[in-house]
Here is the input.
Amino acid sequence: MKYQSQAVAKPYFVAAIILFVAQILFGLILGLQYVVGDFLFPEIPFNVARMVHTNALIVWLLFGFMGATYYLVPEEAETELYAPWLARLMFWIFLAAAGATVAGYLLVPYATLAEITMNNLFPTMGREFLEQPTITKIGIVIVALAFLFNVGMTVLKGRKTVVNLVLLLGLVGLAVFFLFSFYVPDNLVLDKFYWWWVVHLWVEGVWELILGAILAFVLIKVTGVDREVIEKWLYVIIALALVTGIIGTGHHFYWIGTPEYWQWWGSIFSALEPLPFFMMTVFAFNMINRRRRNHPNKVATLWAMGTAVMAFLGAGVWGFMHTLSPINYYTHGTQITAAHGHMAFYGAYVMIVLTIISYAMPTLRGRTAANSNTSQVLEMWSFWLMTVSMVFITLFLTGAGVLQAYLQRVSEAPESFMVVQEKIALFYWMREVAGVVFLIGLVLYILSFFIGNREPEAVLEPAG
Amino acid sequence: MPRLAHDSPAAGEVAPGQGLAVAAEALYLVNLLLLPGVGFLVLLALYLRNLRVAPPLAVCHLRQTLSASLWAGALLLVANVMILLLGGYHSPYTWMVVIIYFTTCHATLVLLGVMGLAKAMAGQCFRFPLVGRPV
Here is the structure.
């Protein structure tokens, strides 16, 4: 660790991993509720489990992004963080807000939570992924502002690199688009329209900048390739991400009551959305091939390559599968969407956060550059278990989705939703088994932090 | 001695035949992603024209991409036609198998092409696993 203030990243990473565990546990509960409808009912109803599953994902990724930022910005800017105390304070505020919100979801009915938190004064609750009480949303804005101030001041006083600036641009975008979660018009079309400005423009817009910046930072460190080369790739990737992703929002507007031209705009631009992910894969493999050193943290390199591949598959290929309007007419809201969502979130954002954690944690825990070989081997097992099981989760959900679309919508004698759900139950069972394997991978991942700590760390080798 | 296999050129240096190697990998991807058939014909022309005169790096990529393209054609076309013929057009399970097979197979072939392209850009030879020719 080059700068003392980078240490503030550690609690963010720890909180991220704890919430990751919560997300997966609730995912397993949800998966089981698909096939055993009254499992844990009425203690944890399906809608509550789903809220915790998706909200925990978003919050732990935000913790991960913040930790990544606090780790890499001082190193890139070649200066200490502007206000480490502010970063630590915001960590506890954010954690308290996240914990209280999840407790609220679990302990009282959602309507009661809305009442307790006085949602009627400024109603923002009730929308998918943005279910948080208004007071929590205000807390998120305060944390985000303090975070941006801290990071912005650090960048201003230090060296300005492309990685830092792209990251900052992504983070500012993240904060700005979150503000649309406070805009809840009465008109349902407008409500959906602007809701996507948060959801889509996060994951298929500004988050891609954050992903690109973190990936570029790790690749600079582990490959030793010239910064200028990596920066040029980064420019192209983020330009493609924004050009395709912003108007690509249109693929969410097909069936919500917007004008017909969105069928064309959405189809054309979102069909191009795999391009930045394609470029990212070429970029990552090219940099690894041109590496000037073999970094001892091999598992971080593995996560970085895995991110590029899985993001391309999940966000690119599985997104393209159902993004064209005539296809989406049949597949909209089926398990194909769930298949895409799972692999895209895992490939693009879960893996990039695990990449930076894998790269940064050894130094944050006092090592020079890497964990011991034993620890790294265990982490590699966790990489493969989680990644392969996610591939299977995606394939099972895709199978379920294709059948669902056919039986429910394409067939000359369409069947009802619940009848079709019965017919695809086998896929849900297989998805659940794959989910258990994913959990085993996650357990190994956590164990890798505690095993091999007394062994010497892996050593740096010259490039072969 | 000509450069081959896993030697990477130094930064800024271009290995002999690197342009041709990149073109071969790009055409392989064009065939899969943009212009099926057309990409293959151009790749075939490039292969026939340069095989005997090109540097080893280019020959490696030309051979690999041609072999992989032929396998890709077989895997994507023949196998899909077989599945459709055996399962019939009106079974939902046929479509489920076809869509999953096509997507996974096609995505895998594209990923192999991406790896090949990255290797070509780094001035290294690359053997496509399973669908490539022995180096």
User: Anything to note?
Assistant: The mean pLDDT of chain A is 96.
